[in-house]
Amino acid sequence: MHSRTRRHRLTGVVGALSALLLTVGNPVTATARPTPAPAPRPMTSGPGTNHATDDPFTSARTAWWRQDRFGMFIHFGAYSNLEGEYTRPDGTVCRNAEWIKRECKIPDEVYERQAATFNPAGFDATAVVKAAKDAGQRYIVITAKHHDGYAMWPTRQNKWNLRDHSAFDPHRDILAELKKAADAAGIKLGFYYSIWDWHDPDFGDPATFPRYEKRMYGQLKELIDGYDPALLWFDGEWDADHPTNKWSRQDGADLQAYLHGLNPRLIVNNRVGKREVVDGDFGTPEQEIPAEPVDGQLWESCMTLNDHWGFARYDTHWKSSATVIRNLLDVAGRGGNYLLNVGPDRHGRIPQPSVDRLREAGRWLGTHGQGGAVYGAGHTGLVADPSWGAVSRRGNDLYASVTAWPAPGRPLHLTTKAPFRVTSAEVLGSPRQRVEVTPAGDGYDLTPSGPAVDPAASVIRLTIEPPTAAPAGTGTGLTAQTWPNDSFTGPPAVTTTDPTVNKSYRFDGSPDPQIPADHFATRWTGSIQPRFDETYTLTTVSDDTVRLWIDGRPVIDSAIPHGPKVDKGTVTLKAGHRHSIRIDYTERTGEAHLKLLWSSPSRPQQIVPQRQLYAG
After folding, report:
1. Contacts for 389-393 with beta carbons within 8 Å, 24 or more apart?
2. Alpha carbons 586 and 550: distance in angstroms, whole number
3. What stretches of 81-224 adopt beta strand conformation (E)?
4. CA distance 549 to 558
5. What pTM was estimated for this model as a whole?
6. Which has the closest alpha carbon to 392: 338, 318, 453, 336?
7. Phi, psi of 579, deg, nearest 5
8. What is the mean pLDDT of residues 556-560?
9. Where are the beta strands (DSSP E) in 197-294?
10. Is 441 exposed, middle or buried (0-12, 13-18, 19+ CB in 10 A)?
């Protein structure tokens, strides 16, 4: 992890990996299952694989991640042995943490010598998992390999790892220990893996990069087969030098397909590719919280507890527990996840200030049912984000988490975006306290009768009677006509019914053998049936062009060829009514994507489901 400007670009395609991947190293465990490498992908004709196998916003595969909301990030590696400081030969001291090798210009042989003394004998997986459990964190992501290339498990791909290049007990495996402890505690485990590798001599040269890539695929197969992670969290995808990093969008697409071939249940972040909206399952804003829900993709905000990801003995600039709690509430209220980092010291111990703040966050979540504002809760378009706190929705309950409690007799104003009725209101943890709910202006005034329950945040739970929904539809999808050109010229070559508009052919084909992989066009027609009388936001994720009409009126017009891109338009729809829809999409060159999502005050963002689409 590191904060710096990244520039996305499309680079050349590395040669086919299939022959290399057949010889990847043996898996860590004897029970590992062999998986065939991806075959070379033709670029001149279809069909290809639709890699959009589900909708991450609603799929069973991502359900645990969307429910859990709060995770622990762990940055731990050979850099931890220096604890944030390097003394140069001239006696001056350079400070950094996980980037200390590069930022302090430590020579390779010096860095390797210090790594040989790394002995995190104090790493206690049970204690780490307990810290996460006490914090209310429901998943853990640990750095299996950071940019320095040092593997924190006994990889068979090289000797630059904790077993073969350290003073640590060679019979121990901290990832296996953490997996065992996490499973016992009911906590999901994921691994961070850096694509960029400062240590591997084959990484920076395009001529030798396939050798590195072979080992990278081998290591990832070891992690999946040996530890069965629920999630892979990639990093180091950006263009860089020293060594040169030419990781391309196609490299990312190939890797993502390979990983899902190993385990279709895996959740993968967007840094597997080039951090585009079409990459992976979720976006990764770093050290920031988006002001609004992210369009077109799930998201997770990753943050440090102080100013570094790895351990730095001098860094005592800790976030307060109140800040952690309020960040978590803001994230959940905008439909995201919060991945909060700890950096163990060279012995493998989480610093006590981190443990203390995490425990306070867990105390808050576990008290008075306040965790209902986070777990399984998410964004609601029914109300505006208030200045006095955050609001999340879980079923027919709105959780108004108040971080600025009003003076006695003063109201909290809640601006509404759609009509609903409040049927009850209570301050969690203060059962005798009344909350007067009064229609006022553009929403409701909430006036509690007593003091705040908690200085970090007090929660008012509002039970609501939401807008009436029309019955679920009975649709089977839209009519899709596809042309073997990008100008809709002549008769369509293929006509089908597509259950949803959720296509991702990446670089490897088209909808049908009659359709070329480049320069084709698809038109979807039929009708779309909402369940609420509301203003809907229709969102497309596309590459290369898209135009969308509802009832003959243009809603999205993005006809200039582009790379992966989000476009939005709003339209008022009537519940139960079938509104005509037409989508014109063209694929020019490179990737092929089109997704159609909708959201409204009563409908969280999702791919428009099959049952609400009718062929025409």
Report:
1. 389/329, 389/457, 390/326, 390/329, 390/330, 390/332, 390/333, 391/333, 392/329, 392/332, 392/333
2. 19
3. 85-87, 93-95, 139-145, 188-194
4. 12
5. 0.93
6. 336
7. -90, 135
8. 98
9. 231-235, 267-268, 282-283
10. exposed
Per-state percent for the chain, helix, strand, coil, to nearest 5: 20, 30, 50
pLDDT tier at 363, thresholds 50, 70, 90: very high
Confidence at residue 3, expressed as pLDDT on a 0 to 100 scale: 41
Longest dimension (CA), the chain: 77
Q: 3-class SS at 314?
A: coil
- Taking residue 308's Cβ as centre, other Cβ atoms within 10 Å add up to 22
What the chain holds in terms of domains, given with CATH numbers, is 63-365 (3.20.20.80), 389-465 (2.60.40.1180), 478-615 (3.90.182.10)
Residue 508: the pLDDT is 82
For the record, the structure tokens of 552 come out as 């003959």
Are β-strands 70-74 and 613-615 bridged in parallel, bridged antiparallel, or unpaired?
unpaired
Residue pair 402/460 in contact by the 8 Å Cβ criterion: yes
Half-sphere exposure of 234 (CA within 13 A, CB side): 30
Beta bridge partners of 390: 401
pLDDT at position 48, please? 87
Q: Looking at residue 2, what is its pLDDT? A: 53
Q: At what angle do helices 174-185 and 209-227 cross, to 10 degrees?
A: 40
Report, as an integer, the average pLDDT of 271-289. Answer: 98
Within 13 Å, how many C-alpha atoms sit on residue 60's CB side?
A: 2
Q: What is the pLDDT of residues 450-492, one digit of tens each?
A: 999 999 999 999 999 999 999 999 999 999 999 999 999 999 9
Measure the CA–CA gap between 310 and 81, rounded to whole angstroms. Answer: 10
Task: Kindly state the average pLDDT of the residues 13-23.
Answer: 34
Other beta carbons within 10 Å of 597: 23
Q: Is residue 109 pLDDT above 60, yes or no?
A: yes
What is the C-alpha to C-alpha distance for residues 361 and 318, in angstroms, rounded to an integer?
14
What pLDDT, in 10s, does the model give residues 232-251?
999 999 999 999 999 999 99
Considering only CA atoms, which of 391, 365, 375 is closest in space to residue 337?
375
Distance CA 139, CA 160 (A): 27
**What confidence score (pLDDT) does residue 556 get?**
98
Q: In this structure, are residues 416 and 442 in contact, taking their beta carbons and an 8 Å threshold?
A: yes
Give the whole-angstrom CA distance, residue 456 versus residue 431.
19
Instruction: Say how far apart CA 214 and CA 355 lie, in whole Å.
Output: 39
pLDDT reported for residue 491: 97
Amino acid at 405: W
**Alpha-carbon span 341 to 359, nearest angstrom:** 14
- Say how many C-beta atoms besides its own lie within 10 A of residue 142's C-beta: 25
CB 558 within 8 A of CB 580: no
In this prediction, residues 8-33 reach a mean pLDDT of 34
Q: What is the pLDDT of residue 372?
A: 98
